[in-house]
Write a structure and sequence with these properties.
Length: about 300
């Protein structure tokens, strides 16, 4: 409800803020318990006002007055009765009982907010175990390339680990993508009072540049996916480097070349950058929308295995 709404008298903004037409449609106005379709009262008032004409002078002060031409309404006799009841309420009761309506329906007043006590036995949300498909991973039992432990580095182990990463973070699929899509299905509904709308905006965001907690979590899931995806590619490249090194040791008798820190950073530049990107999520200023992309490497995680 807008904080600058003037509730001191009946006016369109205040009527809208109090949802009086909705209450009338729902039969919640005292003395008017008949229910109507959503939006009926507001539409009917507009239709009635459209038939009004300004008539000539009336009485000693020669003032003009508005006259409703009921015959111009294209409604049945029973509907006309409802229209006249609504109009009488709008013209007479609404001004007279305005202060009572404000006290009853002003949801900025905490005393008007009916919060039922939490019932632990009640199912408030549709049942959902929140589970995701478990990736099919197996424990590494050793590779044939280093059965006797002669190699300094087992490239089979590296490639196996990379393959396991791909089962978790595949080409546009995987457990983190499942979580990403699951959060995308969440759609908190706006509340009827100010604090409920504030909570909804915290969860779902307030605009294109603010994804709220949902968008931030989606962005985090996608960033983790990207990190594992690019790590897979980097490990395969590093394994190829080790295989070439081992070949030179076996066939050329060269000394095994240890990988330097600079070389490791070069191989791992993309996943390291994606790991750094994870810290962008979860902060108080984070505005993740769930649509960002990983930095460098395979872009959006839609590349194939190398």
């Amino acid at each position: 409800m807008a904080s600058d709404t003037d509730f001191s008298y009946e006016n369109d903004d205040a009527i809208d803020a109090l949802h009086l037409y909705d209450h009338y449609d729902n039969g919640e106005i005292g003395g008017h318990t008949k229910k109507h379709p959503n939006g009926w009262a507001e539409t009917a008032i507009e239709q009635i006002e459209a038939t009004e004409t300004t008539e000539g002078s009336n009485g000693k002060d020669r003032s003009t007055y508005q006259e409703v031409h009921w015959d111009k309404l294209n409604v049945s006799d029973s509907e006309l009765k409802d229209y006249k009841e609504l109009w009488n309420w709008y013209q007479d009761e609404l001004p007279d009982k305005w202060n009572d309506y404000v006290k009853q329906f002003d949801q900025t007043d905490p005393s008007n907010v009916d919060v039922p006590k939490y019932d632990p036995n009640k199912q408030y949300l549709p049942p959902d175990d929140g589970d995701f498909d478990k990736p099919d991973t197996k424990a590494y039992t050793g590779g044939s390339d280093n059965a006797k432990g002669e190699m300094v580095v087992s490239t089979d182990a590296i490639k196996y680990f990379a393959k396991q990463l791909r089962t978790v973070a595949g080409d546009g699929k995987g457990v983190f993508y499942d979580i990403y899509n699951k959060f995308g299905e969440l759609e908190p509904k706006p509340g009827r009072f100010a604090k409920a709308e504030i909570l909804r905006q915290k969860l779902a965001g307030s605009g294109p540049n603010d994804g709220g907690l949902i968008g931030d979590t989606q962005g985090l899931m996608r960033q983790i996916h990207m990190t594992l995806f690019t790590l897979h590619d980097a490990l395969l490249t590093m394994a190829k480097e080790y295989e070439d090194n081992e070949t030179n040791v076996r066939k050329k008798g060269e000394k095994f070349k240890d990988m330097t820190e600079d070389e490791l950073n070069q191989f791992m530049s993309d996943p390291f950058a994606d790991i750094d990107g994870i810290q962008d999520y979860g902060g108080t200023e984070s505005g993740g929308s769930g649509s960002g992309s990983g930095s460098g490497g395979s872009g959006d995680g839609k590349g194939g295995d190398k």
